[in-house]
Amino acid sequence: MSVKNLLLAFIAILISLINVQGQKADSTQNKQEKKYQAKAPDTQSFGKEAFEASDKTTIRWLGMAGFLINSRGTTMMVDPLLKGFDMPVMIDFPIDTEDVPRLDAVLVTHSDNDHYSIPTNRDLARVTKAFHSTVYVDSLMKNEGFPSFGHNIGDTFSIGPVEVTVTPADHAWQNAYPGTGDRFFKEEDSAGFWITTPDGTIWATGDSRLMPEHLQMPTPDAILFDFSDSEWHFTLEGAVKLANAYPHTPLLLHHWGTVDAPDFAPFNGDPKQLEKRVVNPKRIYVIAPGEPFVLKRLKKSTD
Ligand SMILES: [Zn+2]
What we know:
Elements: H1 3-33, E1 57-63, E2 66-71, E3 74-78, E4 103-107, H2 118-124, E5 128-134, H3 135-144, E6 148-151, E7 156-159, E8 162-168, E9 191-197, E10 200-204, E11 222-226, H4 235-245, E12 251-254, H5 271-275, E13 284-285, E14 292-294
Parallel strand pairs: 3-4, 4-5, 5-6, 10-11, 11-12, 12-13
Antiparallel strand pairs: 1-2, 1-14, 2-3, 7-8, 8-9, 9-10
Zinc ion binds at residues 65, 112, 114-115, 207, 255.
């Protein structure tokens, strides 16, 4: 073997050693990259019985930010997402769109596709009497031919015996990332809903940064609680503040545990972090998608 060949052989051995080291580093890194993410409890599927006449108000989380409310037979969904999301979902949705027999209304808080799911709403439009949202989202719904209504913040409208008031939200994140939206987003393009039923009030906050107004609402009997430690949401600090502003109100957490995105703050909230810090942590309901929660009016003395 010449000196040159010896040198080449030595270089070859060196390269293969570097490769082995590199692969080891890669596989360790991959293991570290998959961070822990809290996941929703196992789904409890339901069918048309959840839409039937009833003598109470029942709330079911649909996964993501969606809810079904059946208030004494008046049925509505808030931000339903039951199919066609563009990120991997790690839960089973509790009902298929084709199994939804009827809805008096669909309420949509804002245009993000984890809340305004066009594939879901196209299916639901067959059985839904009315769609309600902000003025901007209404314009998108009109393009789809949905029977939709647009509302300003503070407006009130009725769904049978249920009264809904539109609450403020601060979630115009698109303006901070040029290219994500083809328009300037206004604060009033996003909203929440204050839902007054015969059995008490439900506040669907919508996605939002914490606003002073959020801490000065009347005491709701349940909050559909946007929970994620993201700067465009309440953040963990803000969630604690909001929860403690209504220290007896049951909190039905959503926006967590559904999308497989351990590195993406809007979707990777962990209810355990909130449980450690709120007053009366037992009122945090980590409900499974589809699990019924019966609304009860809070006792006046706890206001
Ligand atoms: Zn969202």
